[in-house]
Amino acid sequence: MMTKKNDYSMQVTSKQLIDYIRRTFRSIVLGINVFTLLLLLSSYLSWSVSPDRSLLFAYLGLAFPFTLTANLLILTFWIVTSKWKIVLFNVIVLIICYSPITTYFPINVFSKSPPEDSIKILSYNVRGFNWELDRKWNKDQPMVQYLKSVDADIICMQEYVVSTNDKHASTRNLQRVLKVYPYYSVIPLRPSNGRYEYGLACFSKYPIKSIKSIPIETSDNGAAMYTIDVNGKMITVINNHLESNRLTSKDKKMYKDFLRARDSRRLDEVTQSLDSKLGVAFRKRAPQADMVAQYIAERTTDAIIVCGDFNDSPISYSYRTIKKDLKDAYAETGFGPGITYHENHFWFRIDFIMYSKNLKAYKCTVDKVKLSDHYPIWTYLSFK
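Above: the chain's sequence. Below: its structure in token form.
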């Protein structure tokens, strides 16, 4: 009798222990869940709070995809364990965050073909044509051939660095290959050293009627505004290259090595290094975005296209400030995260094409051609 009683007691104790472990584990998961939901909701504020006021929300916006992924994994756990009240609570928060979620990760399964009268816009940070400037000029250089093959009507390039010597990659040599673009503009962003020119470039099949540099405070970045006559209809085009994060090769290598080794002892070093660069860049981009937004508001045409390398994610103050009443071509017609920057374990969509509501976008695409540290992005646009 005593043996049976002892066995029963041990079974009860074992069951109680398992139940206790389950309850404790669920409580921990619930605590993490509440915390990540608060982070997700707080990242929403990165659209409206300038980094000049607080860097916290800028970092939360940058971390948005990771916070969202964590919440979706936790939501899956609650579904599997049939905790439907908690599932409902999570779903409500995700619905509240519908706009940033679909902006970051659009799901446009079906895409219409563009009409015949549409124009194709390409934005590409060419990184100095992959720094092949000192090589002897070759019209078959991969990036030049890509620009030729994509056959866009308007090409906006950032980090446009060309040689002043026609023996190498110069604007004149590019024009000979890209001869379908009789109209072009190169706005220098730093004084020429006699060997190279650095700036923003726009190549167009249509007449560029006016060119204006947008005065933003920066040393190497910039923005330009063009008025282009597209078959008798005037369109404003703004080409942006907002403040870079200034991460050096050493910074990127340290970050890459940290991810590979997962050495927690170097976490503080990596965090401080990134913060010293990212924080400064966040603050510099805020007034730059304000200035670009001002020029957008004061434009003289109804139709406008804003594109370029924003150096900021879709969940950021810069993105939202510039976008305002415009539409994001990728968010409207793309599918997935649309990563445009892809080097050294940094993967973000920081290149955009935006447009006014009297235009319509079709088939916005990020071409996965590894010719620069950025992928090119293009879309078709037509008048409504």
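The chain has a mean pLDDT of 90.
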